[in-house]
Amino acid sequence: MAGATLNYPKENQSKTLAVKSGFGVPVALFNFNRPQMTRQVFEVVRQIKPLRLLLVADGPRASRPDDARLCAEVRAIFDEIDWDCEVTRHFSDTNLGSFKRNSSGLNWVFDTVEEAIILEDDCVPSLSFFPYCEALLEKYRDDPRVGVISGNNFGFPSVGRKKDSYFFSAYSFTWGWASWRRVWREVDLTMSWWEPVAGREMLRALFPRKAELQYWYELYESIRLGKQKNAWDYQMLLSLFRHSQYSATPRVNLVSNIGFGADATNCLDENSPLHDLPRCELEPLLVHPANIRRSVRVDHALFRIVYQPRQSILPRAKNKLARILMRAWKKIEGSS
After folding, report:
1. What would the pLDDT profile of 306-330 be if each residue is shown by its tens digit?
2. Residues near 221 by beta carbon (within 8 Å), at least 6 away in sequence
């Protein structure tokens, strides 16, 4: 059950061993025009000292006079890299927008390296996020059942199977994540294969609860019909659904999204209970689940927290959620 010991940098030696000369997994940082947020992410990455950095940045918008200065400030932060590191830049001179910049940036990242950790400028990780991703990237590298390693768990209550460092879910959360070239290359950003009847049947097999099924069906139909703008992460999630791949989700939250607010692309409500969730550290000894399986009940609880914010049970019914999870974990344990 037990995996490798997580290795933290020297600043965190009280928890476990010091990191070696540098962190070996390539780290890709996606940025735009928010230097203060970029600085917070960079300072954490600086403690890890990755040996390979891939930097992706969108260009300034012609309609926003401050963008040129802000984008330049963001890019100047990376001139402060003061450790032995191979740095590759993929900066756009013009503004591509969120979908094109992120999707083309991910194409470039996974054309360049076989696997990577991905952080956007508003996703601040804990230190143990990095060795956690490193260990799971190695363990599941050739396992087609695992598609994504998530760092964010949206404050999901840690009950039940406390010995496991993470669990598997049909949902992939990309506020700090890692994956492999083999997974990204399967993502069809145009959804060219999606057809309403077959799409609904595929989703029905994953989500027997009507609310969950209807939510995802309507969302992907809206994208197909052009009623909702494209978003690379929805397409990646659909690809995971299609290929029966799960996401590894940590037992405690390892990444905080600090980017909620008026200048955000999607997360506009700065009062959201998901904004700037506390970051935790995993215990040094990483413990793997006995089986690669997801719980429909646990995934439905995650669905209610993340995708139905108006009905969110996160701030007002954690006790009820804990009971649901405890029953779900016991059921899983009984069938293991």
Report:
1. 887 544 444 444 555 555 555 655 5
2. 196, 199
pTM: 0.86
- What are the tens digits of pLDDT across the range 85-116? 999 999 999 999 999 999 999 999 999 999 99
pLDDT score, position 225 = 92
Q: Is residue 210 part of a domain?
A: no
Token pair 């145009």 is at which residue? 190
Helices 296-306 and 318-335: crossing angle in degrees, nearest 10, is 150
Does some domain include residue 110?
yes
Tokens 């591509």 locate to 96
215 in a domain, yes or no?
A: no
Give the tens place of pLDDT for each residue, 152-178.
988 776 655 568 999 999 999 999 999
The CATH number for 159's domain is 3.90.550.10
| Exposure of 210 in the CB half-sphere (CA atoms within 13 A) | 0
Domain count, the chain: 1
For the stretch 52-64, what's the b/e string if a residue is b when 16 or more beta carbons lie within 10 angstroms of its beta carbon? bbbbbbbbbbeee
Token pair 């200065």 in the structure block, residue: 69
Domain range holding 277?
2-189+230-335
Pairwise CA distance, residues 165 & 213, whole Å: 29
- Asked if residue 211 belongs to a domain, the reply is no
Characterize the bridge pairing of strands 2-5 and 285-287: antiparallel
